[in-house]
What does this fold into?
Amino acid sequence: MDPSMMTPEMLAFAQQQMANMSPEQMAQMQQMAASMGDGMQMPPGAAEQMRNMKPEDMARVSEEMKNMSPDQLKSQMNTNMNHHKAQADYALRGAEKLKTDGNKLVGEGKYKEAIEKYMRVKNNLAEDASAAAKTLRTSCMLNMSLCFNKSGRFASAISECTEVLKGDGRSLKAYYRRGQAHAAKRDFPAAVRDLRRAVKLSPGDETVKGELVKAVEDMKAEGDNGEGGVDDGECPDFEGGSDAGAGLAGAVAGAGAAGGGMGGYD
It folds into this structure.
């Protein structure tokens, strides 16, 4: 195995396996890792690469590490971090191009083809924990939910929105589009719950408010009055964790993104 292909995770794992390393060598490696701070974050794909290492590769890595000086180890780790950062940047640029292509297809009404582009972004960035990758991935998942709704694939739209909400419990578009999908499936109580959340996030959006009014009317027509009316109904709690949006202002600010607000794509 080429030493230049060792990732920081491989180095850390090999460190644990090398029982024959002296205490001095172990301490030097730990100090070096601590001094690198945030640079020790696992690069995209490193975990999978680590899992797929053969025993002979690990033995070779261990031998190479044992014969390196602390300076050589640090240099090697820096080299690997730069290598993987370049790979991540390349993947991110490719994902941005896929999203642009997907948006063009949505504008042409080619929803199936657009979904394929967005799904590739979602999968390609699955292991990239950077803020830029998370934002791009979330945007494409929301765009997919729009395409799924347009294509009558409402269960898939619900699935994408639910996944978004696990990370951002104040995503206006996720509640709105999931509410639309629930309404299309005639699950009006679920639609009303989501649309109430959307209205709370963007109280001045007449499009969102109109969808809620219609869902409430349809729910009552089905003989279910448990959710109350538009004015007296309670808004359910938002989903997601503590990092699920830093207040309503941020959610509302994103409501009018390129493509026409709630009905458009990012």
